[in-house]
């Protein structure tokens, strides 16, 4: 009997081993045995390898509590929330920017993305061997795997800088070369180059979103590749490449109603380019704890990732995005749910404890459930327009950037930007990104890449240490096992 032996890079335990039980952990609807190649040597079998990659994004360690802490609570858009005594393991030190190399959220995010990358490598290794599956389908699935691997490496390089590039399944016993591959950090430039290569190859074979069937709209598409390439270029200040890739993102629209995009009716709508799908119905899954950990305290959730007063103040009068992004205590939601007010011992409204919550994580149908139907929108056409506007402005084409900025403002119920000069337009675009993309995991990284971080955090009395806080620490446990092949980021012990 043939067996598929899957080598797993287990960063959580830092061991290198073959798959002990010969099972592919799909975690979508079932666990599928891989002890016989013929069981998977067909179209449905081929799909399971890529389904397992998408499924990883529903895991607690990938998209939920640790990631929320690392990429959102650290920003000036959010405070820790919950109660003063509930630290959420490490959310207090993330909020204060005082975390160290043993930070659990930094470690879990690092490990989870490498788990996902392993699933991508696994799919890319096995799919070519499934000769009874449709060749065109296999090619598409390999494109999806490359897009998802690039997406995860983009998360890693934003968070940690240069990281190991694990680009294939290692053979067991582990060779010297493969051990070095898994434990040696590459430069930031090398990681970006690897991401760009994966995305270019994926874009060459993936269909447009419009070519997918209605039940496959959440899959990676050609437009997603170009949008992510534009964003990767944005982070490297490759301005013309940003414009060129944005121009290749076609077939999308600006949805007329901002608030509805983040409800069930707006999932995978005309503006959505790539989002993580949650489904609260059994046996399909939602993102573990995503809605619950951010839900209204003492009503259905834990109350973490509280929108900050700084974010509230960033909205202009009349901006419809404020009430579509933030749940305020004492209000009634679109589905009729009343958010109870908190009163002090004298019967007065107490606005000091959890006065606000993340509306974009709310699920109406599965409000109290651990796994809900809330989605995470990671790439939207609105951001494509903002990226193009920023790049055009940096290229000195400010007059062409302004109309793109105004498209976003008009949807929010605002008038044209008063900004005219290059400097003023730059600031206006940065501010527009903040209020447009709030709680979509961009703000912290935007502050870093644009050099605004130190001043932005100082407003809230927090110290952003230049030369340190631009990156999160590489997990101390990884540095230990690397045995000198990788070094820690500056400023962390």
Describe the structure.
It contains 20 helices and 10 strands. Residues 1-33 have low confidence and may be disordered. The longest helix has 26 residues, at 135-160. It is mainly alpha-helical and 493 residues long.
SSE layout and pairing:
Elements: E1 7-10, E2 15-18, E3 23-24, E4 32-33, H1 37-40, H2 43-56, H3 60-63, H4 65-73, E5 78-81, H5 91-96, H6 104-126, H7 135-160, H8 176-183, H9 188-205, H10 222-235, H11 239-247, E6 272-276, H12 290-294, E7 304-307, H13 309-314, H14 321-325, E8 326-328, E9 356-358, E10 376-380, H15 381-394, H16 398-411, H17 422-436, H18 443-450, H19 453-459, H20 476-482
Antiparallel strand pairs: 1-2, 3-4, 5-7, 6-10, 8-9
Helix pairs in contact: 2-6, 2-7, 4-6, 6-7, 7-9, 9-10, 10-11, 10-15, 11-15, 15-16, 15-17, 16-17
Mean of pLDDT:
92
Describe the sheet with the most strands. Answer: 2 strands, antiparallel
Helix/strand-derived category reads mainly alpha
Distance between the termini: 50 Å
Count of helical regions: 20
Q: Would you identify the regions where 5 or more consecutive residues have pLDDT less than 50? A: 1-33
Helical proportion, percent range: 40-55%
Q: What's the β-strand tally?
A: 10
> Which word captures the global form?
globular
Order of strands across the biggest sheet?
1-2
Instruction: List SSEs in N-to-C order.
Output: EEEEHHHHEHHHHHHHEHEHHEEEHHHHHH
Radius of gyration: 22 Å
Strand content: 5-15%
């Amino acid at each position: 009997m043939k067996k598929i032996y899957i080598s797993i890079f287990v960063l959580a335990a830092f061991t290198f081993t073959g798959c002990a039980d010969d099972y592919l952990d799909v975690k979508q609807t079932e666990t599928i045995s891989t002890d016989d190649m013929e069981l998977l040597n067909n179209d449905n079998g081929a799909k399971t390898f890529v389904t397992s990659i998408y499924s990883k994004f529903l895991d607690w360690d990938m998209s939920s509590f640790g990631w929320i802490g690392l990429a959102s609570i650290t920003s000036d858009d959010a405070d820790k929330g919950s109660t003063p005594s509930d630290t959420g393991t490490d959310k207090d030190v993330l909020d204060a920017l005082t975390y160290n190399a043993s930070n659990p959220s930094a470690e879990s995010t690092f490990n989870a993305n490498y788990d996902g990358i392993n699933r991508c490598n696994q799919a890319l290794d096995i799919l070519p061997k499934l000769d009874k599956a449709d060749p065109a389908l296999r090619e598409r699935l390999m494109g999806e795997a490359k897009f998802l691997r690039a997406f995860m490496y983009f998360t890693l390089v934003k968070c940690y800088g240069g990281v190991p590039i694990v680009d294939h399944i290692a053979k067991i016993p582990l060779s010297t070369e493969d051990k070095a591959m898994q434990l040696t950090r590459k430069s930031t430039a090398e990681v970006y180059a690897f991401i760009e290569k994966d995305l270019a190859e994926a874009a060459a074979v993936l269909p447009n979103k419009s070519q997918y069937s209605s039940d496959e709209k959440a899959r990676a598409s050609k437009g997603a590749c170009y949008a992510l390439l534009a964003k990767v270029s944005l982070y490297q200040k490759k301005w013309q490449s940003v414009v060129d890739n944005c121009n290749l993102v076609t077939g999308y629209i600006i949805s007329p109603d901002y608030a509805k995009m983040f409800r069930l009716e707006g999932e995978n709508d005309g503006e959505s380019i790539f989002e993580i799908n949650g489904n609260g119905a059994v046996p399909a899954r939602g993102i573990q704890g995503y809605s619950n950990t951010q839900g209204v305290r003492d009503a259905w959730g834990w109350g973490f990732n509280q929108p900050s007063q700084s974010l509230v103040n960033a909205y202009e009068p009349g901006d419809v995005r404020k009430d579509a992004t933030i749940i305020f205590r004492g209000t009634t939601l679109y589905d009729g749910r009343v958010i109870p007010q908190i009163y002090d011992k004298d019967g007065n409204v107490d606005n000091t404890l959890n006065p606000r919550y993340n509306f974009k994580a709310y699920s109406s149908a599965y409000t109290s459930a651990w796994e809900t139907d809330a989605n995470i929108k990671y790439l939207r056409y609105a951001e494509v327009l903002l990226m193009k506007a920023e790049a055009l402005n940096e290229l000195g084409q400010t007059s062409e950037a302004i109309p793109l900025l105004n498209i976003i403002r008009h949807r929010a119920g605002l008038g044209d930007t008063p900004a005219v000069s290059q400097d003023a337009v730059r600031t206006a675009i940065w501010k527009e990104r903040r209020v447009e993309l709030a709680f979509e995991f961009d703000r912290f990284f935007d502050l870093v890449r644009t050099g605004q971080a130190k001043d932005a955090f100082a407003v809230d009395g927090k110290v952003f240490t230049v030369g340190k806080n631009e990156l999160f620490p590489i997990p101390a446990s990884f540095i230990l096992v690397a045995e000198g092949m990788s070094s820690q980021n500056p400023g962390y012990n």
